[in-house]
Amino acid sequence: xxxxSTTEPTADDLFGPDNLPYGVYTxxxxxxxxxxxxxxxxxxxxxxxxxxxxxxxxxxxxxxLTAPSLDPLLAAGRPxxxxxxxxxxxxxxxxxxxxxxxxxxLLLPLSGVTMRLPFTVADYVDFYSSEHHATNVGRLFRPDxxxxxxxxxxxxIGYHGRAGTVVVxxxxxxxxxxxxxxxxxxxxxxxxxxxxxIEAEVGFVVGTPSRLGEAVPMDGFRDHVxxxxxxxxxxxxxxxxxxxxxLGPFLGKSFATSVAAWITPLEALEEARTAPPERTHPLLPYxxxxxxxxxxxxxxxxxDLRITVRLNGEIIAEPPFSAxxxxxxQQLAHLTVNGASLRTGDxxxxxxxxxxxxxxxxxxxxxxxxxxxxxxxxxxxRTFLEDGDEVTLTAWAPxxxxxxxxxxxxxxxxxxxx
Amino acid sequence: xxxxSTTEPTADDLFGPDNLPYGVYTxxxxxxxxxxxxxxxxxxxxxxxxxxxxxxxxxxxxxxLTAPSLDPLLAAGRPxxxxxxxxxxxxxxxxxxxxxxxxxxLLLPLSGVTMRLPFTVADYVDFYSSEHHATNVGRLFRPDxxxxxxxxxxxxIGYHGRAGTVVVxxxxxxxxxxxxxxxxxxxxxxxxxxxxxIEAEVGFVVGTPSRLGEAVPMDGFRDHVxxxxxxxxxxxxxxxxxxxxxLGPFLGKSFATSVAAWITPLEALEEARTAPPERTHPLLPYxxxxxxxxxxxxxxxxxDLRITVRLNGEIIAEPPFSAxxxxxxQQLAHLTVNGASLRTGDxxxxxxxxxxxxxxxxxxxxxxxxxxxxxxxxxxxRTFLEDGDEVTLTAWAPxxxxxxxxxxxxxxxxxxxx
Lengths: 418, 418
Prior knowledge:
Cofactor (chains A, B): Mg(2+); Ca(2+)
Pathway (chains A, B): Amino-acid degradation; L-phenylalanine degradation; acetoacetate and fumarate from L-phenylalanine: step 6/6
Largest interface: A-B, 64 and 63 residues
Keywords (chains A, B): Calcium, Hydrolase, Magnesium, Metal-binding, Phenylalanine catabolism, Tyrosine catabolism
Helix content of chain A: 10-25%
InterPro entries (chains A, B): Fumarylacetoacetase (IPR005959), Fumarylacetoacetase-like_C (IPR011234), Fumarylacetoacetase_C_sf (IPR036663), Fumarylacetoacetase_N (IPR015377), Fumarylacetoacetase_N_sf (IPR036462)
CATH topology of the largest domain in chain A: Fumarylacetoacetate hydrolase, domain 2
Enzyme class (chains A, B): hydrolase
Oligomer: homodimer
């Protein structure tokens, strides 16, 4: 396994005043009172109290930060998102103001709070938008056929997942039970999954809803999507393999999907925007991000997010989000082109992020070639996850002035089947 | 097309005091004040006001009926469901009490109110549990292969659908746009779906939640599921055919799913319980409803629901729910066997209900053999739905004393693509 390729940046480097991701936390003395926090280094700012103390926001914006979840902020729309972010930036960049919130005890050590699921997940959709991942999986499962299905280059393939089992980073993941058919067997057996995997992904959080019957075009992306977060779409490959024909993944995915505790607003990621890979097939107009005007507001809707996957603390992969074929703007346009409405809190994920290189693969299925080539490290040999294994995704993106924007980590430890 | 095989029963026959389904309605003078109603014939009882006037329920039960949706009632659990139902039954069967609520203006004509989506849909899952439907579809799409996939007799196949586009009966359905690949073409085209279909289904509404990591066994069905309703899972067959390999249906289904305005509590359907079809394959223990003890509380978890599908008023099919291979109890056990949690408001649907006979098929795909054999009627010829077409599902089940329990209808009219 490779070592980290750069000196480890500090929390202050990754979560400085140009970042300011939002989360929801509780403190030990008030476990029933969730509060909105903004991360600054390895501290969390009590955002509602700070904005109140400093008198930074007028009604109704002020109420968005004193809510017990991000739901009202998400629903408030892009102009409000900008106003609130500007106010919080003032609070943490002006030394006098920062001193006042610190004196008032509103800047707490992250180690002393418990992070909660920061918003109510409405619908959860998972895409399949890495060409490298889809090609690798296709080669493993259909060695004699075309690795990509005929539709793959024409639309971002996706499916609905279970919103009710989206959990916040740190939540233990119990090894799921399920049906699987052992190789060569006629009949399925029941038991704990023996091929438990990760999927390193990025999730996008919808703020502004849309009406039923209304398609949201690609250039509506920034008005509807509030921000993004790392996401681990845990997968029981044996369960999935037996169940998924003809209606897609179901129980192989629905037992848990972990999201980071911190939602990074798109506004923090302007420097990270990048053009997606060259389009090898002509696209229908609603997905064509090469058409005149489609990139008027920037280089494109790709994001240069550098993801690191750790197994029990050791780096096992470094998938580059910039390699994703389909962008989040295309995914949003596709998701709604049939008139399906968006709700505040809709979450849609990129699909496993994999790059072209062997150390850039976002799941064990690819890293071990479906269990044929175990990976090794201080943790020993692994094909799929063992009980007690802990998987952690981190990432950073280029920020203003050569700085870095860190994404909140998503971590989870496997507990034995119940 | 066949005529209705029996004399049309009246609303009083179908929605008598042994039925009492729950819905949520508004009146023209208070369109922003949804209220819980109970259907009696072609009238709706203002349930919260009636229970208050008659002093029929103590706290906290009384509050369950004054809520603006069924959510608190669903969450209250089976003992509360029984107490509330018993109280409402008293209100409508005791002549003095019925006279008092009538005098108080609490029994309104159904034609004067607007029905609303009665509960907040948490996750929506759609199964595929009719052997006749799955066999017919398999024969149409894989004429040279086995009609059923190898997993079909071992588990109830299902997938997650879009909860945010579940709409109440009567909501217009806009013809969805989407990608499809015309027969013989290499490249897809974009446009309004030309193969818009219905799926006649029954939906089950979860009341009592379960914890993450906890499997709900089959005999937990009555404790967790509050009731059922008719459901039409509108499907764009051309969109679905192009998109669904390898991750299942997505935009072909997500534009709209219609549910009846009335949720029939399971308690009203005790007489309708029936044994499911004989199991042709041995089942794993968590799904084995033939094992000793599995049917201790009754004949089985099938329901004898007689569904009628009308196109522009004419009967085009009469699918029997009793023919479903997999029961709602098995679906619930399967859905949670991997530890996936249930939330109040989870909705899961049976999949298209089809019986063995030609007039018992629950979708146009089967009725017209994938568009090859149009159906005809006063509406002319149809392969798939045309703009302006109205589809209505109704159903009844055997009730106490030879009576009938009607299910609330689900209806929708196709509007042209936007």
